[in-house]
Amino acid sequence: MGLGVVAQLVRLGVVGSTSDHASVVSINLFVALLCACIVLGHLLEENRWVNESITALIIGLCTGVVILLTTKGKSSHILVFSEDLFFIYLLPPIIFNAGFQVKKKQFFRNFMTITLFGAVGTMISFFTISLGAIAIFSRMNIGTLDVGDFLAIGAIFSATDSVCTLQNFDLNHIDVAVVLKFLGNFCYLFLSSTFLGVFVGLLSAYMIKKLYIGRHSTDREVALMMLMAYLSYMLAELLDLSGILTVFFCGIVMSHYTWHNVTESSRVTTKHAFATLSFIAETFLFLYVGMDALDIEKWEFASDSPGKSIGISSILLGLVLVGRAAFVFPLSFLSNLTKKTPLEKITWRQQIVIWWAGLMRGAVSIALAYNKFTRSGHTQLHGNAIMITSTITVVLFSTMVFGMMTKPLIRFLLPASSNTVTSEPSSPKSLHSPLLTSMQGSDLETATANIVRPSSLRMLLSKPTHTVHYYWRKFDDALMRPMFGGRGFVPFSPGSPTEQSVHGGR
Amino acid sequence: MGLGVVAQLVRLGVVGSTSDHASVVSINLFVALLCACIVLGHLLEENRWVNESITALIIGLCTGVVILLTTKGKSSHILVFSEDLFFIYLLPPIIFNAGFQVKKKQFFRNFMTITLFGAVGTMISFFTISLGAIAIFSRMNIGTLDVGDFLAIGAIFSATDSVCTLQNFDLNHIDVAVVLKFLGNFCYLFLSSTFLGVFVGLLSAYMIKKLYIGRHSTDREVALMMLMAYLSYMLAELLDLSGILTVFFCGIVMSHYTWHNVTESSRVTTKHAFATLSFIAETFLFLYVGMDALDIEKWEFASDSPGKSIGISSILLGLVLVGRAAFVFPLSFLSNLTKKTPLEKITWRQQIVIWWAGLMRGAVSIALAYNKFTRSGHTQLHGNAIMITSTITVVLFSTMVFGMMTKPLIRFLLPASSNTVTSEPSSPKSLHSPLLTSMQGSDLETATANIVRPSSLRMLLSKPTHTVHYYWRKFDDALMRPMFGGRGFVPFSPGSPTEQSVHGGR
C-alpha cells in the first residue's frame, strides 16, 4: 500500500470500526493519548484544581473536538463503546487492584460501618433517586421511559453492581413475594460471588505453595496470579454472578496468602503491575468518556430542546446530592451512637467529606448507562438518548467541577490531614500505601500484649470486632496459613534460582 | 438469565463467536487452559522430552478433540483466529521482550555473523524453498496455486517479517527494475523500522529522565514504558513498516537507557512483567495452534486424498531442512574464514545444533499462513486449504517431534554445555538470564585496561568489532547517556517517595 492510500485510510479511519486499518488508527490514537495523559498528569501533579481523571477527561474532550472538526461533524468517537471492552477488559484490573491493595486490617475492623454505608446506604440512595426521578420526570415529557427505566436511573447513579439484579424483575407486579425473591436473589448473588472469589484466591495460594517451593520461577508465578485473578472474574460472569465482588475478594485473599508464597521479585512485580494495569484502565476510561461526550449521534437525538437536557441533568445531579446526603448523615449518626470515645466518632466535617467524596460518578455509572440504554453503542430512542446524554453530563460535571473543588474543600475542612488525603479515592497515589507497611502494622499489634483474650460473652458484645479478629487470627494461624501459606509461613526467596538477587550486579 | 439458559448457551457457545456469552465462554476456557499449561509445564520441567511449547500444543490438541466430540464434529475451535489478535496483541509482547532481554554486548559483538545468518541466510532459505516448491508442487495437482503462492510458501517457512514485502509485487514480470525496486523497498523498510524503534526508545528515555527526576512514581513509569513500547509497534503498523523490527530495537534501546532512569521497583517490575506477558502470549499461541489443528472445516477441504496431504507436508518439511542446511553450513564456513583463533570458530557440532534449533517453525509461520491463505479465519479454496493444513502439520510436527529430540541431541553433541543450553530458544527459562548480569559483565570489561585504544587503520581492519565498540562507547558516554540517561548517569532511586523500600517492613 503506497503512502497515498495510507493517508486516505487515515482520513477515513474515523468512519466505521470494522476495517483493520481503522482499528490500527484507533489504537495508535488511544495509546498516544494515554501517554499524553500520564505526562500531563504528572506535570499538573502540584496543581490544586486538577487531578489525573480530570486531565484525562479534558484531553478526551479536546480530542473529540478535533475529530469532530476534522470529519466535519460526522463522528466524534472512533472506537465504539463496547460493553465487552469495559466489563471484560477494563473493569477487572481496576476492581482487583482495589481488593489487592485494600488495607485489610482497617477494612475488616470497620467492616460493620463499611457494610452499613455500602449496602444500606446504597439502598437508601437508590430509593431516593428512583422515587425522585419518578416523581419529577414523569411530569416532564421526555419520551418513552417506564418504571423500570426510572429504577435503572436510581441504580446507575447509586452504582453498585449487585443492584443490577433489580433489572431482571417484572416491576409491574411488586408485592411481598417479589420483594422476598429479590432479597433472596441478592443474598445468593452476594454470598456465592464472595465464595467464588475466596475459593479461587485460596486455590491460587495452594497451587503456588505446592508447586514452587524450592524451585521458584518468578515469571510463572506472576503469570499464574494474573491469570487466576482474571479467571475468577470471568467465571463469575459465566455463572451470572457479580464479577466485581468476586474479583474484589479474590484480590483480598491473594494479598493475604498467595502474595507471600512467591519470590521477592514476584511480590514487587505483582504489586506494581496490578497497580499499573488498574491505572491504565481507569485513564483509558476517562479518556473515552471525554471523547464520547461529543458524540453527535446522541446529542442530535436529544437536542430537541437544549434547555430540557440541561434541566434533566441538573435534576439528576441534585438527586445524586440529595440521595447521598440521605444516608451519609443519618447513618453516621447511627454509627456514632455505638462508639464510646469521641476519637472514634465521625465528626460533622468528616461527614461532609464522606458525602462530597462519593458524589463523583465515574466508570461504573457510564458503563451501566450504556448497558441499559443503548444497542451496540448507538442510541436509538429519544428517551434513551436523553438518559445517556444526561448521564454523561452528570459524570463529566461531577468529576470535573466537584473534583476540582475537592482539594481546596478538604484543605478547608480537614487542615491537619490535608497532606495525606488525596482528592480522588481511586487515584494511584493512594494505592502506593504499601501492603508491607499495613501488614507490618497488623503484625506489631498482634505481637503486643495488648490483645486481651476475650473471656466472656460480655466482651464479645462490647468489643465485637476485636473478638472476631482474635478468633480469626487463631483460626488463620492454626488452619489456613499452614495450608495456604502467608506471611511467616513460607521461607523467603529473593528470586528464581537462575536469577540474580535484585541487588546483585548493579 | 436463568441457569437453564446459561447451560444452553454454554452448549451452543462453540457455534459462532458473535454472541457476548460465547466470548465469555471462550475466554474462560482459554484462561483456564493457560493456567493448566503453566502448572503442567512446571511439573514436566525435568522431563527430557517435553518442554512448555509442546505441553501447550498437546493440551490444545486434547481440548480440540474434546470439543470436537462434544459438538459431534461441528467445530473444534471456539475462537476464530483473527490476524488482528495475533499481529496486534500477541506478537508485540513476544518480540519486545526478546529485544529487551537481548544480551546487547554479545549481540553487537557478533552483529556481522548475526546479520549474515539472519538476512543472507534467510534469503538463501527462501529461494531454496520457493524453487523447490515450484519444482515439485507444480507437477502435482493441488488446486489453484500460482507463482505468488509458491513464493509465499518460501517466505512463510523462512519466516522473516521483512520478506513479506515480496507479496506486494507483480510477480509475472520479474526483471532487473523489479529486483532493484524490491531491494530498495527492503532497505527502506529495514532502515525506517529500525529508526522508528530507536527514536521511540530514546524519546521514552528522555521523557522519563526529564519528568521524574526527584519525583519518581513507579506505576507511572512502568505504564509509560509499556505504552510507548506498544506505541512503537502500532506506529510501525500504521506507517506500513515492519512492526517486528521496530519493537525489537525499541526494546534494545529501552533496556540500555530508559530502564536505568526508573526506580529500582520499576526495574524489577518491568523486567518481569515484560517476560511474563511474553510467556503468556506464546503459550496462548501454541494452545490455539493445537486446538485449531483439528478444525474440521480445513480438513474437509483438504481431505480428498489424505495421502496427498501427508505427502505435501513431508515435502515441505524436507524443504525446510534442506533450506536451512543450505545456508547454515556454507555461511558458517565463510564466517570461520574470518576468525583467527580456533576458539572463535563454529565447530561442526555447533553447526548441527544451529541447523537443528532453527527447524522448529512456530508462531510467525502460522500467522503468515493464515494471513495469506484465509479470509476471516475460514478457508475456502482447495489449494489454500491444503497449504494451511500442511503448514499446521509442519509446525506441529517440527515443534513436537524435533522439539522432543532436541534435549537429547544437545546432550549428545555438546555434553559440556548441556546444563546451560535450553531446548527451546524462546523458552522463558532462557529469558531469566538477568540484564543485570550481562550489564555487569560489560561494565567490567570496559573498566579493565584490556581495551587498547585503536591507533591505526590496521587495527580497525583487523579487529573491526572491537574498534566499533570502542568508538561507540565513547560516543555513548559523551553524548547519548548524558541526554538520555543510562547506567551510571542517573541517581539511584529505590522506589516512589510514598513507597517503602522493597525490604522495609517485611
Describe what this molecule looks like in 3D.
- 2 copies of one chain form a homodimer.
- The first copy, chain A, has 506 residues and is mainly α.
- Chain A has a domain at 84-413: Na+/H+ antiporter like fold (Up-down Bundle).
- Helices cover 70% and strands 0% of the residues of chain A.
- Chain A has helices at residues 3-12, 20-43, 52-70, 83-101, 104-109, 111-137, 147-158, 176-212, 218-238, 243-261, 264-292, 296-302, 306-337, 348-357, 363-373, 382-413, 435-447, 457-462, 464-484.
- The first copy, chain A, is globular.
- Mean pLDDT of chain A is 76; it is low at 1-18, 160-166, 418-452 and 500-506.
- At the A-B interface, α1, α2, α4, α8 and α9 of A face α1, α2, α4, α8 and α9 of B.
- Chains A, B: This is Cation/H+ exchanger transmembrane domain-containing protein.
- Chains A, B: Keywords: Ion transport, Membrane, Potassium, Potassium transport, Sodium, Sodium transport, Transmembrane, Transmembrane helix, Transport.
